[in-house]
From TrEMBL:
Binding residues for NAD(+): G11, V12, S13, G14, R15, M16, E37, G101, T102, T103, A125, G126, N127, M128
Residues the record lists as binding NADP(+): R38
Any one Gene Ontology molecular-function term assigned to this protein's record: oxidoreductase activity, acting on CH or CH2 groups, NAD or NADP as acceptor
Name this protein carries in UniProt: 4-hydroxy-tetrahydrodipicolinate reductase
Pathway noted in the entry: Amino-acid biosynthesis; L-lysine biosynthesis via DAP pathway; (S)-tetrahydrodipicolinate from L-aspartate: step 4/4
Name of the gene: dapB
Active site: H158 (proton donor/acceptor), K162 (proton donor)
Entry-linked CDD domains: DHDPR_N (cd02274)
EC number: 1.17.1.8
Domain Dihydrodipicolinate reductase C-terminal: 131-267
Taxonomic source organism: Sulfitobacter undariae
Amino acid sequence: MTQTTGITITGVSGRMGQMLVQQVATNPKAHLVGAVERAGHDWIGQDLGQVMGGAANGVIVTADAAAAMIEADAVIDFTAPLATLAFAAVAADAGIVHVIGTTGMSADEIAQLSLPAKRSVIVRAGNMSLGVNLLTQLTRKVAAALDEDFDIEIIESHHNQKVDAPSGTALMLGEAAAEGRGVALADVSDSGRDGITGARKRGDIGFSAIRGGDIVGEHDVMFAGAGERIVLRHIASDRAVFARGALKAALWGQGRSPGEYDMLDVLGLNG
């Protein structure tokens, strides 16, 4: 029998964590070997299958990330920035692939991933879906084709429990638009409009964040010119698209050289 890839999942009690468990269970190329939660969580010490409302699966939830990664080939991580940095060090020590779907990481926190990436494969993306990564490529190309007569606005919508704004996906799209125009996003980003702000600054890339209900994720990139608008849109109606993408990244990373990669690498869209 062909050996399958052992997966550890962090933040396993969360919506994405549980979705990842389900995706691993149905993928013939992977199996679950570890489940991590924060210390003191109710699930610690319990069988993961049972606390998720199903049959026992023999995977015990733990707060010890190193122990959870001993038998793993990859860890999939949708948690919080500081937790992700800690997991990156543990994954590097274990020599396994670290797939990062965590959003809200600062530039300094992202830079800190370069050290563990010297010893392990890190695949990080603001969004793991195929459609969003195609949208990123399209955004870069359209931004390169249009000059500053076209204002760029990125509008994102998510559920009312999301804690960061703009979303990681919106920032990824903003970076793509900035790259297309040959500028740094930090120099042209506008995400703080409130009150009497004055006219829009030519060349800025604007962000708007909508939070409500159970919206999974919607992203529009609008290029607004005089008399016409071009709108690129992606709508995610099922969180499983992110879990499938993350698992694809974990499988893709097997046997790769240590370094930092993204979903465009995984999907063969870079270069």
